[in-house]
Amino acid sequence: YFAPLIVAFPPLAQSTVYSTFPQTGQTYGLPPFGAMWPGIKTETGLPEAPSGGQLGFLSFSSAYTSTQPGQLHYSYPSQGKLQPHSISQDNAATLCKYMKCLEIKETLKLQWHTLPTSVSLPAGAREQDEVGRRNSVGKAKGKGKKSDSSPPADSDLERIFLWDLDETIIIFHSLLTGSYAQKFGKDPATVLNLGLQMEELIFELADTHLFFNDLEECDQVHIEDVASDDNGQDLSNYNFLADGFNGATGGGTSGGATGVQGGVEWTRKLAYRYRRLKEIYNNYKGNVGGLLNPMKRELLLRLQSEIENVTDAWLSTALKSLLLIQSRGKCMNVLVTTTQLVPALAKVLLYGLGDVFPIENIYSATKIGKESCFERIISRFGKKVTYVVIGDGRDEEFAAKQHNMPFWRISTHGDLVSLHQALELDFL
Prior knowledge:
It is found in: Cytoplasm; Nucleus. One of its GO terms (biological process) is cell differentiation. Keywords: Activator, Chromatin regulator, Cytoplasm, Developmental protein, DNA damage, DNA repair, Hydrolase, Magnesium, Metal-binding, Nucleus, Phosphoprotein, Protein phosphatase, Transcription, Transcription regulation. It comes from Anabas testudineus. The chain has 428 residues and is α/β, with parallel strands linked by helices. The chain has 13 helices and seven strands. It has helices at 89-108, 173-177, 179-184, 188-209, 212-215, 247-250, 264-284, 294-310, 314-327, 341-350, 369-381, 394-402, 413-424; strands spanning 65-68, 71-73, 159-163, 331-337, 362-364, 386-391, 407-409. The strands form two sheets. A five-stranded parallel beta sheet has the order 5-4-3-6-7, sandwiched between helices. The chain has a two-stranded antiparallel sheet with strand order 1-2. Helix 10 links the parallel strand 4 (331-337) and strand 5. It is globular and about 50 Å long.
């Protein structure tokens, strides 16, 4: 009866055949990162990875730029042609630190580990403050011999960290120029006053106890540079004030049998001063207050506290990395500064770094530049050791690049914090 009402419908079927979506193996979260190498991170952007991708990562197609707090915009090549987008501040911190560690890892060929997401993001843009920075405490450039008679390195050494001093470990020169106050929003008058008082202490210590009046015009790169002219005379009762040495005019005398600047007697007296300088440094490296009168000792303690306060514990933050390196059995800290050697030693003592840097590990690049200093250090410790350069300036970055050494730039407190985290995680 109902047969006329029944209509047969054809079975349903797909109008379009769907194929299985191919899995590319791409992980989710942060995009892949490009390989980097030492000294290449520039203000204009990031380099692209070599063809073939040594680390197997895609390279950035354009530089990353920070447009506002918490935003990091970038683009990268992919089959999907993804557009530039923003990521959270936590992920931005991870991204920046991840790329920086890749840069070091590629050079040092270290074992890579997963980076935690809670790393610090260095804040602020890079500010160059190179004018007048070279030889900021030394009053003149001296002359002297270049030989390095330092003892051979321990055969177990694996890694040496080459540190700059001013604006890397300590804040000093930028206190005097006002650049630190401007960059970090501090009171210029207060900062300048602290810098001037510390400068006065540095000169007083150098002139009064470290023979700077005698040695200013015959500066050396290393404490052992004139040791070969020392005949080993007992200096216990030696009168340095009455021996007739004149550092400013001694260089004008004719060469003697030793074949170095000045006569034999003059160079021997010069060597005596550097030997005594070494003794003083070693005796007071943990107690510089013993060289100062009570008033100056109290002034130093106040300056140390106030500079730490105004620089937001810059030195204490840097010390964490220095002490961590020092605690390792096969690593060493070496200081390479553009300050003349004697004022540099005064700085190290007054800022409380004497126990971190043995005097044999302090080099002055005032006369020969950092690239040549690095060459001397390589000659001393050998080419099998891995060298890492830490600094804030163009000269140490260029010298690191010339010697194919990884370079870690220090511009802000965040850079120091990130350095310590990288050391703790065994990236360095």
